[in-house]
Design a protein that fits this description.
The protein is built from ten helices and twelve strands. By secondary structure, the chain is α/β, with parallel strands linked by helices. It folds into three domains: 82 residues, Orthogonal Bundle (Arc Repressor Mutant, subunit A), CATH 1.10.10.10; 79 residues, Periplasmic binding protein-like II (D-Maltodextrin-Binding Protein, domain 2); 97 residues, D-Maltodextrin-Binding Protein, domain 2 (3-Layer(aba) Sandwich). GO terms for molecular function: DNA binding.
Length: 297
Amino acid sequence: MINFRRIDLNLLVTLDVLLSEHNVTRAAERLHLSQPSVSVHLAKLRDIFGDPLLLPGPRGMLPTARADALRGPLKEALRELELAVAPTAPFDPALADQTWRVAAADYGESTVLIPAMRGLRAAAPGTRLAVLDIAPDRVARMAERGDIDLALRTKDMAPADLHQRALFTERYVLAGRLGHPALKRRPTLSQFGKLEHAIVSPDGGGFRGITDEALARQGLSRRVVLSVPHFLFLLSVLATTDIVAMVPERLIRHATGLRVVEPPVDVPGFEMVMLWHERSHRDPAHMWLREHVMASV
């Protein structure tokens, strides 16, 4: 049995040319090698295969039965290997059929993916998009396994071992229903604290957030009467009740039925980032998707 690890790939390339030319001199010219070098290659090949492979003949060299059996499979194998190591072809979105998998909560869906969708469908109509709501502590592992292509997260929740690119910086505003009597103008801190507030708690059930921390630094507090896990439900609550909320400005940029005012307390904003793993960092298709998302926000 031939030990494949003993075979130098250059020897197989030489054999392929010899089986095509049936002549050491012509094979040497095609391979840009000296005739003695090709002869040395042939000697090594004969030793590996235990067969003379090419025999002297009246019009050059004649292949043995073993060489004839090798000809087709060898040529096909070298062709496949050449394709495997060739530079990756440019990505053509019009011909693509990828299924993209993106990890995003509802905020990322609304502010990043929805703006990207129209252009994505127009430029790459054969692709599909799967949006997954994944716990933050699973993002890095799923990206490493290739289970997701991208993740959309706030910078403070971004795993350190993933590539990241900033999408935008967000700020908070105070929102309530149109005609809310307390939002005709910017409320005072005292008025703000007396309003009924809602909060989005991704972990579920929390009644304290960064607004409460900012108030506490001034010795103040507010009334948080509702905790919800998603922004979509929160927007419906704001539009139909007298409950108010501190919400990211981009989220309600095109919302109807809401009144937006500047809050009386300075609440730090956050940076939204796009995350991906090193395994897909240089992939042309993945690079195209990242640039498309960047251009859409």
